[in-house]
Amino acid sequence: MNIIVVMKQTFDTEEKVSIQNGQIVEDGVEFIINPYDEYAIEEAIKLKEEFGGEVTVMTVGPSRAENALRTALAMGADKAVIVDDEELFGDEYTISKALAHVIKDRDYDIILTGNTSVDNGAGQVGPRLAEELGIAHVATITKLSIEGAVATLVRDVEGDTETVDVKLPLLVTAQQGLNEPRYPSLPGIMKAKKKPMERLSADDLELDPETIKAKTAIVEQYLPPKKEAGRVLSGELQDQVKELVQLLRNEAKVI
Amino acid sequence: MDKSFLDELRQGVRAVCGDFPDAYWRELDEKRAYPEDFVNALTAAGFLGALIPEEYGGSGLGITESSVILEEINRSGGNAGACHAQMYTMGTLLRHGSEQQKQRYLRKIADGSLRLQAFGVTEPNTGTDTTQLKTTAVRKGDKYIVNGQKVFISRTEYSDLMLLLVRTTPLDQVKKRTEGLSVLLVDLREAVGNGLTIKPIRTMMNHATTELFIEDLEVPVENLIGEEGKGFSYILDGMNAERILIAAECIGDGRWFIERAVGYANQRVVFKRPIGENQGIQFPISRAHVNLEAADLMRFRAAELFDAGQKCGAEANMAKLLAADASWEAANVTLQTHGGYGFAEEYDVERKFRETRLYQVAPISTNLILSYVAEHVLGLPRSY
Ligand SMILES: Cc1cc2nc3c(=O)[nH]c(=O)nc-3n(C[C@H](O)[C@H](O)[C@H](O)COP(=O)(O)OP(=O)(O)OC[C@H]3O[C@@H](n4cnc5c(N)ncnc54)[C@H](O)[C@@H]3O)c2cc1C
């Protein structure tokens, strides 16, 4: 089985975000694999363990993102591809177009990716990529099993679940609960050193960046306002209730 | 040294440690329990097999890489003391064991199905003066009959095998006091209750150390490591590795302390401003950081020499001393920075403070390092 995982390197979820001149400061920041993509990688490796075959992990991003790919290789993926061409970084539109170019001439049975990235949170790359490739996609899956050419998926639909059968080839996006990602083991890290890392640019892909320029732009970035201290009402219970209703109506304007 | 590989290694260890937060270690400390889950996770991820050659199922890495693994454990807030010996005790077996012994044990040590993480050297009546140790092994046919007592032998309750240093030729029958000692591999699973009694010692930190009472314990002759009578030299040549690895644990502790001290100094507001704005608070933290960085350089220097197969006795010993002093300084500063909260268990500072204090004494006491440097580096008379 040929398996492709599309992944992204993101800020460590424990990092504090700071903004300077409208830009997010990246100096000294720890980067990790987007947690939802980790589920995708784990599921891909499990599929390989069950059916044999090969797992290729790929990303569009700066060269520091190679570390994230290396971690995926250490977990058990076989090959990595990075498109580290700044001209192709763009938005979800550009990235899914670029990825489609990388993938279109490769053999694959299933593509896995995270349901969303914890930094931009758009949740678009997976579905867009499936559209580009003309294959089916199922989002936010929490269970995956394959028999013959059919995948049975359980997906999280806002608190409820839905089970669907879909023919391969197929793209799925992973939701929390799909699995428990493994640690890269020391032997895994050692083996990863020798696994292939393919680096591609727009030229290599015979892609003109002008034709797939971003459709969206970030106009401004700012941190949410600091949380003000809460207010504790006091006095007789009756009066407190009255005051609360007043405040909800006049100040918070929610009733 | 490949920096990006070391970074990857750090991240790998951090990923494992990330599942074992402060609260995990705090609870173990309170219950005096062994970190079984942590050790199993680290073992399953293969990190304790770092030094074992690939042909025996390990990863064949050097001391530099291995030291980074232990450093990261301590840096995460945990304590590598629970399992570091699984990484390096096998060194004696690897360097001096027969091919048959290596085939029999190393692969299982590498995958963790066998634990060799106990090393019995110290004795109650002789302490640092190792060659005077009183535990004897007398050969009878295809067995050694062992009698004696050991103290502060760590992790015996959580190990399958133990290396035991014993005297096989009485002191008055050897030319030099360093001769006549031998290393035996004791199968603890068979020995306990059959000549070996283990008694835990309660110490100021959670360290699983024990006292051993040995009475007519039978050890098969095939479990002798290397040649009879050469045990002391076998132990000595594992010392440099141990010194460097321990130095790295100290560095890990130091980093943890500095991070906590800085975090707290920035956040604690007294007299209407963060305490970190006071030079009286920041200077001691800065100084501790400077000393830690210097110690870290010596540690990497020693590791580099070791991995290149060069002499590194002086550097390894100096690294251990500098790093242990630096972690202790950092511990003290961090406690002071935290004021009363430093003493509260919830902040973990007092726990790490107790843990890092050990490195001043074990596995080698600071004085003994100074006497080593005096004698072997400076050419002063031997003082012990
Ligand atoms: C928690 C813990 C775990 C341990 N784990 C192990 C283990 O797994 N295996 C093992 O074999 N041992 C272990 N030890 C023992 C440890 O290695 C010894 O405690 C240490 O080597 C010191 O020996 P001692 O306690 O007998 O001190 P002593 O030898 O009695 O020394 C007491 C003090 O006097 C100093 N001193 C002694 N002689 C001289 C001299 N000539 N000049 C200057 N100063 C001197 C020493 O440096 C020390 O400060 C452990 C100890 C502890 C506390």
TrEMBL record, chain A:
<dbReference type="Pfam" id="PF01012">
    <property type="entry name" value="ETF"/>
</dbReference>
<dbReference type="InterPro" id="IPR014730">
    <property type="entry name" value="ETF_a/b_N"/>
</dbReference>
<feature type="domain" description="Electron transfer flavoprotein alpha/beta-subunit N-terminal">
    <location>
        <begin position="21"/>
        <end position="209"/>
    </location>
</feature>
<comment type="similarity">
    <text>Belongs to the ETF beta-subunit/FixA family.</text>
</comment>
<protein>
    <recommendedName>
        <fullName>Electron transfer flavoprotein subunit beta</fullName>
    </recommendedName>
</protein>
<dbReference type="InterPro" id="IPR012255">
    <property type="entry name" value="ETF_b"/>
</dbReference>
<keyword id="KW-0813">Transport</keyword>
<comment type="subunit">
    <text>Heterodimer of an alpha and a beta subunit.</text>
</comment>
<keyword id="KW-0249">Electron transport</keyword>
<dbReference type="InterPro" id="IPR014729">
    <property type="entry name" value="Rossmann-like_a/b/a_fold"/>
</dbReference>
<dbReference type="InterPro" id="IPR033948">
    <property type="entry name" value="ETF_beta_N"/>
</dbReference>
UniProtKB/TrEMBL annotation, chain B:
<dbReference type="InterPro" id="IPR046373">
    <property type="entry name" value="Acyl-CoA_Oxase/DH_mid-dom_sf"/>
</dbReference>
<keyword id="KW-0560">Oxidoreductase</keyword>
<protein>
    <submittedName>
        <fullName>Acyl-CoA dehydrogenase</fullName>
        <ecNumber>1.3.8.7</ecNumber>
    </submittedName>
</protein>
<dbReference type="InterPro" id="IPR037069">
    <property type="entry name" value="AcylCoA_DH/ox_N_sf"/>
</dbReference>
<feature type="domain" description="Acyl-CoA dehydrogenase/oxidase N-terminal">
    <location>
        <begin position="8"/>
        <end position="112"/>
    </location>
</feature>
<dbReference type="InterPro" id="IPR006089">
    <property type="entry name" value="Acyl-CoA_DH_CS"/>
</dbReference>
<dbReference type="Pfam" id="PF00441">
    <property type="entry name" value="Acyl-CoA_dh_1"/>
</dbReference>
<feature type="domain" description="Acyl-CoA dehydrogenase/oxidase C-terminal">
    <location>
        <begin position="229"/>
        <end position="362"/>
    </location>
</feature>
<dbReference type="InterPro" id="IPR036250">
    <property type="entry name" value="AcylCo_DH-like_C"/>
</dbReference>
<dbReference type="InterPro" id="IPR009100">
    <property type="entry name" value="AcylCoA_DH/oxidase_NM_dom_sf"/>
</dbReference>
<dbReference type="Pfam" id="PF02771">
    <property type="entry name" value="Acyl-CoA_dh_N"/>
</dbReference>
<dbReference type="InterPro" id="IPR006091">
    <property type="entry name" value="Acyl-CoA_Oxase/DH_mid-dom"/>
</dbReference>
<dbReference type="Pfam" id="PF02770">
    <property type="entry name" value="Acyl-CoA_dh_M"/>
</dbReference>
<dbReference type="InterPro" id="IPR013786">
    <property type="entry name" value="AcylCoA_DH/ox_N"/>
</dbReference>
<feature type="domain" description="Acyl-CoA oxidase/dehydrogenase middle">
    <location>
        <begin position="118"/>
        <end position="216"/>
    </location>
</feature>
<dbReference type="GO" id="GO:0070991">
    <property type="term" value="F:medium-chain fatty acyl-CoA dehydrogenase activity"/>
</dbReference>
<comment type="similarity">
    <text>Belongs to the acyl-CoA dehydrogenase family.</text>
</comment>
<keyword id="KW-0274">FAD</keyword>
<keyword id="KW-0285">Flavoprotein</keyword>
<dbReference type="InterPro" id="IPR009075">
    <property type="entry name" value="AcylCo_DH/oxidase_C"/>
</dbReference>
